């Protein structure tokens, strides 16, 4: 996964590796708009910003306020 460290935009498979999710789960979360994405060249090309994925991981790792 070291080659992923330099990339700003990731595809669904790479995003899944970062998040620890299956590619199908990443696609489902994209479809339901629960995962932010970028469409750089049109409707079918979907990419994910590394920064957005890291922010999502940080939010998931914070304890719930009670």
Written description of the protein model:
By secondary structure, the protein is mostly helical. It has a single domain (2-56), classed as Arc Repressor Mutant, subunit A, CATH 1.10.10. Helices cover 44% and strands 6% of the residues. It is built from 3 helices and 2 strands. It has helices spanning 12-19, 23-31, 50-61; strands at 9-10, 48-49. Strands 1-2 form a two-stranded antiparallel sheet. Helix 1 packs across helix 2. The N and C termini lie far apart (36 Å). The model has no long low-confidence stretch (mean pLDDT 87).
Short description:
With 66 residues, this protein is mainly α.
Question: What are the main properties of this structure?
Answer:
Arc Repressor Mutant, subunit A, mainly alpha, 66 residues, 2 strands
Please report the first level of CATH classification, the CATH class.
Mainly Alpha
Radius of gyration from CA coordinates? 12 Å
- Named CATH topology: Arc Repressor Mutant, subunit A
Per CATH, which architecture?
Answer: Orthogonal Bundle
Proportion of strand residues: 5-15%
Q: Work out the helicity level.
A: 40-55%
Q: Poorly predicted ranges (pLDDT <50, ≥5 residues)?
A: none
Query: Helix count?
Result: 3
pLDDT averaged over residues: 87
């Amino acid at each position: 996964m070291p080659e992923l460290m330099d990339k700003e935009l990731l595809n669904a498979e790479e995003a899944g590796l970062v998040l620890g999710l299956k590619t199908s789960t990443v696609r489902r979360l994209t479809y339901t708009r629960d995962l932010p994405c970028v469409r750089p060249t049109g409707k079918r090309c979907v990419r994910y910003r590394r920064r957005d994925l890291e922010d999502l991981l940080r939010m998931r790792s914070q304890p719930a306020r009670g």
